Amino acid sequence: MRLYPLLKPLLFRTDPEWAHETITAAAARAASVPGAGPLMRALFGGEHASLRTSLWGLDFPSPLGLAAGFDKNATLLPLMTRLGFGLVEVGTVTPRPQDGNPRPRLFRLPRDQALINRMGFNNLGLEQLAGRLEKFRRNASADGPQVGVNIGKNFDTPLEKATGDYLACLRGVYSLASYIAVNVSSPNTPGLRQLQTRAALEEMVRALVAERTALVSSGAPHVPMLVKLAPDVSGDELEDMARVAVENGLEGLIATNTTIAREGLRDANAGQQGGLSGRPLHHRALETVAALHRLAGDRLVIVGAGGVFDARDAYDFILAGASLVQLYTGLVYRGPGLPGRIKRGLAGFLERDGFASVSQAVGRGG
To answer: Is there a catalytic annotation at residue 186?
Structure first.
């Protein structure tokens, strides 16, 4: 765990995407060595009874999860489960493989503890991801993390036909996912955020819910569905999206995706095009979670995401109304020991404040 601070200065001199691919591939190989699993769980896991939570009939070892985008193709699932996450969200997956936007497309902002990406849903496609998920599920531990799948549309699919892409992804992963996240909020696929308007979102959500109903009628389990929202929306737009989710039977919302805002940044890469994640996003994401909790907290599960670097950040999301919390950029800056440190800190905060379980603390921030 203490090796990462020594490696980080060297890694941060290399291209971010190359570093991500090289280090995660090496770590995944190390995790597959016989006997590595128990050792990694001992080093990074650290389960705490107060952090266990149950949602939608699913048991989560902790509320701390890995956000979509880190493991686009479900190649890192064995590694990520051993780092101590309570949930891992893979994707974004599209029906057909696609290369995404030209490189370079991922940029560090060390002075701001942030990243900017314009990846563009690069992934190996639905068929390959489904194959990996099926293999993982055959060998997965019953008390391991829940695995969600984040779904999207192909770059060259017109917006008016986008629902077809989302339906194809839903069918392809439905029996393999603990939950499904509908990504209509990435800023890196042209026009995608137009699907967040009330009319467009409602049309898509109704189609997805109808397809789920048909699958359940044919004997499949009821798999929860959530929509991932952008932070760059007005209060009225946020209320519209919450209403669409509630009125059409969705189970939750993820707040938030990356932002196109650039206020207050100091790093030389601040002008790069794409979605900003990390520390600068945290306050806005926290505000969005609190607003959603006021709007629909008793009817929807809210997942907080944005700028989680320590236990305090995660706890603030929970107090604001998030039942689950995801991170990504914090892992890049703080290393693989971060999930374990956050969980220890969360357990300490719960004990200090007199909460026997994390579910008791949700929305209790006043």
So the answer is: yes
